[in-house]
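Technical note accompanying the year-one report. For the benefit of new consortium partners, we illustrate the data format agreed upon in the data management plan: each record pairs a sequence with a structure-token string. No post-processing was applied to the example shown here.
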Amino acid sequence: MKPNLIDRAIAPFAPGLVASRMHARAQVEILARLPELSALTPTTNMTASADGSGDVNGGSSSGARRWWKPRARDARSDTLPYLRGDRAASRQLARTSPIAVGAINTNVDRVIGTGLALSAEPNRQVLGWSVEQALAWKQLVQNEFSLWADSTECDIAQQLNFYQQQGLVLRAVLESGDAFTLMPDGTRTPTQPYALRLQVLEADRVGNPLGQVDTPTVAGGVKTDANGAPIEFYVYSQHPGGFLPGAGSPLAGEWVKRIGRSGRRRILQHFRKVRPGLPRGLPYLAPIIDSIKQIARYTEAEIMAAVITAYFTVFIETPTGNTAPVFDGTTPGAAGAPNEVGLGMGAVVGLAPGEKVSNTANPTRPNPNFGPFIDAVIKQMGMALGLPTELLVKQFASSYSASKAALLDAWVYFRNVRAWMAISFCQPVYETWLAEAVAIGRIPAPGFFADPLLRWAYTRASWPGDSMGSINPKDEVAAYSAAVDARLMTRERAEWELFGSDWNATFDTKKSEHDRLKAADLLPTPKAGAAAPIAGKKPADDTKENDDAA
């Protein structure tokens, strides 16, 4: 350990202080290297093999684990020391790697698409409402929410509406592991009666104050209580990676309470918790970062090799020994004069006497094994990302059944992420907005602030999104129609899943179309063999039919 510039400056006046400083730095360096040293130190007893060869297996029954001695650590120790590098690598791949870009875009397009829409579902049994009352209140709430959510004024930067911010949050979580949403109060305007604003923060904006080391209660900028529940987040005033001169320390900020004194949420953390005690999220690409980078390098090398192979260069040895290009129209230089010689498209290069071309481009390029090898690696990446290969590479070259199975398998994953997105972002924002709407009198909700059960009943909602898509629309529409006729599915859900539209929102248009067609005598003719509807006769009651049959 050598003294630095400051140590040398104060050494003549305070040698004891210099010694203390150097001792402290040495301790910090040793602590930083403890994980590496522990990984290199055998943690199990070394025993001789049964054949007397002295082979050591470290307590494992397989020789494959001979030198592999992982340590059992908690979630914080396994992730936080490497999280900063993983975030940077993940975001760089999300900008430059086709595989990474495609995987993240596929997630955002399929999970969010045009946005998860509010479908208010107040619990009318708890509220004591009739069906008509529930429908009227639902329509009022959805209209008011659209007034706020459809406008970019809900964004503190006034750039994105609520549905676009959903895509931003999911993309930030996939790239960085987690994201945060501040919910400050803005200024009400003549066009926006609500003060609630949203500010999405990248993961790097939350960290320990001034970069301090983690403590039992503070880790990764998250302060927890004795039970491990987050109570505060330390938010930097600026992004640590975008330090500007004169703006102060990039690691300075303030603590923001998760829940304010009034019980209102002030900040949301969005991440998928995969281990108990995990304070921060892991990037979506974390398991395959190294593989993607190696594939990118391999792809670049193969492309360069193919480009070089495509060059056609002729080397000519001249009696004068001029190494300048032969047909470039320039004056030849002196014999033996050094010249830059390189490959080019249709280039003709002269060589000095005795010089030979010892290595030319390999004519076997492009590599015929490049495609199969890349496909095999991408299949493994798809398994790690939860995406079928067909969806990851956007190529459905298999049979109809295989393509359908791939879409269904992917939809299980997308539906899971969509449900998480609704719980983590959409529902908390909706509940916060509804509380403000009730408080300022724009939404009637008696007992909303007095009874937690009534508040729960008012805030029930679902968040449907775009449909899965269809390979064979005719068969799928027939299947949904049969499910609706059999009372196994509502028309509202069927329309959401088939077309991604709200049955209630399109009902008036459908009724108007039906009335106009009926007035013009243009209603569809029943198909051959189908029973014609009897005008003025209502369907028989199921109970009455059963009684008659008995």
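Partners are asked to follow this layout when depositing records. The radius of gyration is 34 Å.
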